[in-house]
Amino acid sequence: MTTWAQRRKRAYPGKAIGKAALYAALIGLSCVALLPFLWMLSSSLKLDNEVFQYPMRWTPKTFHWDNYLLIWQRVPLTTYFRNTAIVAVAVTFAQILSSSFAAYAFAKMRFKGRDALFMAYIATIAVPWQVYMVPQFIMMRRMGLYDTLWALIVLQSFSAFGVFLMRQFYLGIPNDLNEAARIDGLSEYGVWARIILPLAAPAIAALVIFTFVNTWNDYMGPLIYLTKDQNKTIQVGLRRFIQQYTSDYHLIMAASLVSLLPVGAVFLFLQRYFIEGIATTGIKG
Amino acid sequence: MLNATGLGGNANRRYRAGKLEKRNTLIAYTFLAPNFIGFFIFTLIPVAFSIALAFLNWNGGALNTITFAGLENFATLLKRFNFTRNELGVTLKNTAFFTLFTVPLSIACALLLALALNRAVCGAKVFRTIFFFPYIASLVAVCVCWSFMLMKLGPVNQMLELVGISVGKSWTQSREYAIWALIIVSVWRNAGYYMVMYLAGLQGVPAELYEAATVDGANGWHKFWKVTFPMLTPTTFFVSIMMTIYCFKIFDVVQIMTEGGPGRSTKMLVNYIYQLAFIDIKYGQASAVAMALFAIVLIITLAQFRIEKKWVNYM
Fold it and tell me: In this complex, which of B29, B35, B290 lies closest to A130 when CB atoms are compared?
């Protein structure tokens, strides 16, 4: 018969090795996940002819911080950032407002045709945007929205996904609450504004990040709709920079790194809601 | 008398209820209107229009230049259909190849990350953030960075050389490696995203099952294949649908890294739609290809829902 102490002693080395292997694996995987970012950072501080040196060095000989000043002079990065920020903020705001409003009708009210209408919303989530982007483009051009930021704003402000996400969350809020509020004399708008909306804060946070990140990183929309340089967003602007200065690897990497910062900051601050949002809805915009 | 008042009251109530319902419906419509008007104009109409467009001839000119094409657009695309020369055939083959490797590899990586994170105690949140970060990082930045890293003298080839594998060319400019560059970037980007879903799935596996397996003398390997993996089938099922659809819609990674080249070796369905619509300005043909994409996505969704009933273990 073995005593507890003996058993613990015997089990211990194996467990320790297992733990060490686990952490080694996690650190290894982290390196793979972060590899491009580290390489980006390292290359952005080099001279162009040092980037593809053989054998490669992870730390530059001298740190060329001035690369980060040069990029602002070469391309209108400020304009690109401003345009992206306008679109991202406008879309996020419109999306939150319109979908939290519509979701209230779907989740907390009864009216004729509710379920059929909701099915139409759900069904269009399943239709890839690439299927109807061509007729949408034709329509937008007829409306005179081609090559304006408005095109991108209206394109993404009324997504069915936002309505779906908010509705799912509202369904989890007990009906007793809104019924009690109605009896107390609040109008439907009052119930929405004072009862439901404050309780839906986590869903709103998730939707804010989903929308902001998606809009910031959107590539195909701006590629199709924007042609004038002064209208470009950061993604297509960065792409133009790359095509123009093909071999200025160090500057391209510096501009790339700068383009990551805003969305990275938003993510780090609000990531809890983002990850919870994915885990509960499982769908991206 | 009593009876009559009872009836009258009832009818009155019914009348009032009907009025209330009407008022309620009106209020509901005001809630819906801001979203629905935008959704109707910018999504529902284009969706309906896209079906019609596939049967029309239109090269972007005035509205009176539109002619009815019948099945002509489809016939043009399918003329001499094969997987080596025909444009649609080639893009279908490329997209299928890309999907065939990206989906299982992403699932395997996502599951591996989730299993490792599920066991770690310290720093789990930090690791989770690190693994997730590629997914939200700006697409153009990471794609460009990866194509540089996969260049002839880039770090990837140099590291591979250390373990005795010599590639000797830039991945994105080589017919055989270009599609693998796209697969690597897609797996790298998406693994962290699907990891989050697997982590949620792992939370739902009851601890009693592991205890029972331990009593029965199962080792870690057995526990994974007999408990963890079967219990995760709903997640795996869901992730595989989402991944497959994502892969068939792939565009931006390709456009940034290879532009469909070299030759047509990495040209995907959506790149073909983009080219037909916005470079060749053949709206009808572009919409015909878009219909093919839609049909594929629809078939995958429906087929997987069928399979779900037989395969998924919901307990």
Answer: B290
Domain segments of chain B: what residues? 2-53, 83-311
| Whether pLDDT at B43 is above 90 | no
Distance of CA B63 to the CA centre of its chain: 34
* pLDDT tens-digit series, residues B68-109: 777 777 877 787 777 777 888 889 999 999 999 999 999 999
Contacts of A155 in chain B (CB under 8 A): 42
Q: Judge if the upstream peptide bond of residue A55 is cis by omega within 30 degrees of 0.
A: yes
Q: How close are the terminal C-alpha atoms of chain B, in Å?
A: 61
Could you report the predicted ipTM of this complex, rounded to two decimals?
A: 0.81
Residue ranges covered by each domain of chain A:
4-64, 68-281
Minimal Cα distance from B119: which residue of A? A22
Q: B57 forms bridges with which residues in the sheet?
A: B67
* CATH classification for the domain delimited by A68-281, as one of 3.40.640.10, 3.40.190.170, 1.10.3720.10, 1.20.1250.20: 1.10.3720.10
Q: How far apart are alpha carbons B13 and B9 in whole angstroms?
A: 6
| Contact criterion met (CB below 8 Å) for B25 and A112 | yes
| Yes or no, beta carbons of A109 and B138 under 8 Å apart | no
Contact B255 A158 (CB under 8 A): no
Question: Which of B116, B199, B273 lies closest to A130 in CB terms?
Answer: B273
Please state which CATH class domain B83-311 belongs to: mainly alpha
Distance between CA A133 and CA B269 in Å, rounded?
Answer: 14
